[in-house]
Amino acid sequence: MKMRISLLQMIIFPVIIITVSIGIASSLLVSHYLLKTIENELQEKAVIVTQVLADHITHNVINNELAPARLVLQEIVDRTENVLYAYVTHFDGNVFTHSFSDEIPENILAHAKISANTLAAPPYLSRFTIDGHPVFQVGYPLKQGKKATIFVGIDESRITRKINTIRAFIIALTMIVVLFGIVVETFLIRHIVAPIKKLMTYMKDFGKGESKNELILKTRVKELAELSTVFNKMSTERKQIEHDLRESEQHLNILLDCIHVGVVVIKRNTHLIEYINTFATRLIGSDKNSIIGQPCHRFFCPSERCPITDLHQSVDSSERLLLKADGQAIPILKSVVQNTMRGEHFLIETFVDITNLKNAEQEARLQQERLIQADKLCSLGTLVAGVAHEINNPNNLIILNTPIIQKTWESILPIIQEYYEKNGDFKIGGTTYTKVKDNIPVLLTNIYDGAQRINELVKNLRNFARQEPSDMKDFFDINTAIQNAVAILENQIKHSTHFFRFNPARDLPVITGNSQRITQVMMNLLQNACQALRTKNEHIVISSLFNKRDNTIIVEVKDEGIGIKQEDLPHILDPFFTTKRDLGGTGLGLSISSNIINEHKGRMYFQSTLGKGTTVTIHFPVTGCEETEKGKGTNERT
Questions:
Q1: C-alpha–C-alpha distance, residues 559 and 554, integer Å
Q2: pLDDT reported for residue 463
Q3: Which residues pair with 606 in a beta bridge?
Q4: What is the value of pTM for the model shown?
Q5: 439-464: b or e for each residue (b if 16 or more CB lie within 10 Å)?
Q6: Rounded distance, CA 414 to CA 410, Å?
Q7: 597-623: string of b/e by CB count within 10 Å (b at 16+)?
Q8: pLDDT of 17-66, one tens digit each?
Q9: What is the pLDDT of residues 136-167, one digit of tens each?
């Protein structure tokens, strides 16, 4: 990745550095040029003066005229600006003459010897200091072949002062250039760099969606001011768009939370729940914060393999299971579509709870089975009515003819008795007369009583099987309904127990309803009680009483049978629930009985202890009608 540099590093600093560098370099070059120029002019002047002076005193030196030569030297020194001294030496180093009033200084002679011994071509140049004054000395031979050199000392103090002045000016100019660079830099930083940095900060916040205030750039640069205006306009438009998006999202969330359809958004690669609406949280039984971030198979399609991403199935209106927070699984009808948002792949699942639909389907199946069972019972009722009719015809002959036989026996008995007294005992019907004489009346009485019982049983069966309207407007005595059930099941009761009792309350109010259906309920409860007994020594007791405080009639059926398991008690009224499937139980008896009791506005309660027996208590409300009947049963029936 290429390293990025800032605008300050890329433009401002280089420009300022180049500008200052050029200014300083220009100042140094000008300073060097001026100094060099002054120095060259000084050298040229000194050389010229030396040459002129050499021309003037050459004659005096040749002729050893010291006084005139010295006068010339002193005149040159006095009349020429910046000339401090002049002297002439032989090439052997001895001084011929000089312009000093006293002896020539030794340090000057030392430089004269150095110049004389040098092999360089004239002029001979040297610099040194005398009494703190810088001196520029120029030496020049007098004439070719003459071994004498004239030296002139030039005072450089004034020249140095001029050079220092120029240097100070150059330094001041350089400082001005640097100061100008600093001013330019400050201007650029304040009016270009700082606004651009502020703009960058706002743009970063803008990218994060955190920009709140208007961007104000303090700058004199027109383009940056225009850029600030454009940015503020763009920021305002974005805020409006974000506001519209938030409103749209709120409306969408309200819409999703109002519909009675569960909506869940799941990340496809991680299977984590990203979003869930309110209806779905209510179905699951938990809050959104506890659900979002959880793996989808924690609640939907509880399996290790996803039907979409792993099994590549198409989920469209298919029945699945939803696992609630409490662990309960409910059926749902689910559809799934795949979508891409923000570069990520998501699964959008919609589902509805079909528990009621499943229950309705189950209820429809149960109703169908009930109809089938009712049809069987109807057919059985028709068959029972037919059989009862066929039994009733010959039974009526027995009832009618038995009294005639009894009367006939009573009529011939004296004749037979007279024969017996005359002739002694004789055989009759395979036995002796003395044995059957007292038994025949008893046999005829038993035959007649049995025929009467058959007649009563047939009558009860025909009444029970008779198709009656389903209205609930009959007034009847509850004891009569119980006695009818007992009469029909008398044989089963005798084969189940030796201890059966019916304790009817007397003067019970009548109730409104359908006596035939209440008889059906009592028959079902009696059959269950008989089937629960393990031996004939266990008791079955039916009791009825009137509770004046609650204005209800209470019927209690109690047995000492095997009892009901506590885990089965909540389900005994469910259709088709039975613990006697192997004995032919259908599981409809108590369910139908419960519905009949509910139709009579009654309530039915069960108390059972495993191994000790079951007590069924039924409460019937009294309607308040005037008619009452006395119970027709006995206090005890065994």
A1: 17
A2: 63
A3: 616
A4: 0.40
A5: eeeeebeebbeebeebbebbebbbbb
A6: 8
A7: beebebebeeebeeeebbebebbbebe
A8: 776 677 677 767 776 777 677 777 777 777 777 777 777 777 777 777 87
A9: 888 878 764 456 788 888 887 777 777 777 77
